[in-house]
């Protein structure tokens, strides 16, 4: 028997699921590459769209901070806001793309065997590429303001990994729910829009009244955004250990729940979709 042969037998896919994820890793690269090409194909400004959205979001919140006189830091407003927009843009894009990924690949899912988890995972990987482009924009912005980060910037990969885990967990959960209940195609944009306004993008978490801070920190993006600000601004904004711990805990819950529910419903995708 050739090592490249695939045996289809009762229970084979279930027993070898996680091994198959590695065997089909090239499909993950292909799906991510295809999504990137399709996203910017026949667009006038191409990959610049990855910069336009966070750039405009930053401008809106900078204007808001100045109108409401929230700008009290010695750090330029553009950097304060962009440090928060950076993880939020990654999360919101990954969540939106992952939640619609199974529906968008219905023909592939209904005809070919492979671990379906690769489909939403590729959407998150694609969003990570956009994140890298946006991170380069932040670097240029900091260079323009001659702002030098401190040693805290070394913790940025950990925060990126945490954002990736949260995006993957929620994306898997909503992707599976979207297959079973098509109403979620309308729920996800609402979640993203609502989340934008309940995340500390325009203001720092330290300015939220103390009695509401614990409830506010139940949003896992609060600890992540605070962490990004702390890392990028060289510790010039406070980092609440409680909010950070709660963010890690909530991310873990969403990741486990997302994988569990996705695997529980995966067998019916080809029939329902």
Give me a quick take on this structure.
With 273 residues, this protein is mainly α.
Explain what this protein looks like in three dimensions.
- This protein is mainly α and 273 residues long.
- The protein is built from 14 helices and no strands.
- It has helices at 12-15, 17-23, 25-40, 49-67, 77-99, 101-104, 106-111, 118-144, 156-180, 184-197, 210-216, 220-232, 241-265, 269-272.
- Helix 3 (25-40) packs across helix 8 (118-144), helix 9 packs antiparallel against helix 12 (220-232) and helix 9 runs parallel beside helix 13 (241-265).
- The mean pLDDT is 86.
Structural class: mainly alpha
The outline comes out as globular
**Low-confidence stretches at least 5 residues in length (pLDDT < 50)?**
none
The profile of the biggest β sheet is: none
Helical stretch tally: 14
Mean pLDDT: 86
Q: Which series of helices and strands comes N to C?
A: HHHHHHHHHHHHHH
What topology does this entry show?
Layout: H1 12-15, H2 17-23, H3 25-40, H4 49-67, H5 77-99, H6 101-104, H7 106-111, H8 118-144, H9 156-180, H10 184-197, H11 210-216, H12 220-232, H13 241-265, H14 269-272
Helix pairs in contact: 3-8, 4-5, 5-8, 5-9, 5-10, 5-12, 8-9, 9-12, 9-13, 12-13
